[in-house]
Amino acid sequence: MPHWSLSGDGDMTVGSCKIELRIHERGSLKDKRRVLKSLKDRVMARFNVCIAEVDRLDDWQRATLGIAAVSNDSRLVDETLSKVVNWVEANGGALVVDYEIDLVTH
Q1: Which tens digits make up the pLDDT trace of 8-42?
Q2: Which is it for the CA torsion 68, 73, 74, 77, positive or negative?
Q3: Number of domains in the chain
Q4: 17-46: burial string, b at 16+ Cβ within 10 Å, e else
Q5: Is residue 2 part of a domain?
Q6: Taking the model in full, what pTM does it have?
């Protein structure tokens, strides 16, 4: 695969974040999906990131979300993903059990 750049030295940072959640709603997968849909929609609108449920799809009390951000500024990517985690903790309707943020610069 060829390596080239139109702008010369344009580095790109790809950030990923995995968030493990415990859902407060008790009941069913339908309740869980309602909570997660609202959460994902609000995160995407507020932070301009991609977000998806990536694991524990059939567990109605737990969820794993994957979030991705891309920029030419690694600090911006790290700050954005950290802000997403903080926002989910404060506004998500679920308990953040664990999270990890990884950055890769190309």
Answers
A1: 467 899 999 999 999 976 678 888 888 899 999 99
A2: negative
A3: 1
A4: bebbbebebeeeeeebbebbeebbebbeee
A5: no
A6: 0.85
